[in-house]
Design a protein that fits this description.
Blueprint lengths: L4 H21 L11 H10 L12 H5 L11 H4 L15 E8 L14 E3 L4 E9 L2 E12 L5 E12 L3 E8 L7 E9 L2 E11 L2
Parallel strand pairs: 2-8
Antiparallel strand pairs: 1-3, 3-6, 4-5, 4-7, 7-8
Length: 204
Amino acid sequence: MTRSPRTAALYGVSLAGLLLLSACGKHEPATPTSPPAAAGTAAASSTMAPAPTPAPGSTAANKAPLPTVTPPATAATTAATPAAAPVPAPVPISVAKLTLGSAVNAEHRITRPGNRFASDIKTIYASVATEGQSRDATLNATWRYLEGKGQLVSSISQSIATDGPAITTFKVQNPDLWPEGKYRVEISLDGKPVAQQDFEIGKR
């Protein structure tokens, strides 16, 4: 094939253009470049270093919160002190019962009670039961013969100290025969009459 000089020149330009276009469409591998200094600084600043432990005695250590310590409660605050039981007032002594009889047991209790006795009986007992408390009380038994206008037969006193019920026994004795008739025994406590009982002595 015969080409003219102009056609050859255009052909050469076209070929050169194609080669240039091919060269422009090629992608060369990018040469790695070092990251800019600013990026490296940013990366370094994004990684936080652990905070330094404050040295003992430093200001930071002194400002650290201290644990709250609750002192142990004393017995006075944890348990209420039991109130002292009120001391009961002493109950004054008083005479509860008067019993007459002709015999008593070891506890001074009347074993043969009665209000009428034979004239030949030797001993007559008066048992006085008391209640309450006393450190120095005085009981008195006064025996009288009523037929003889209240003639005094005997008057006996006993001191009594007790913290509760007690029995005090009085007695009158006559080795001879008792005069027949009516009698009375009167009991007083610290000088105040508190009980009395009549009885009679006669033949069997």
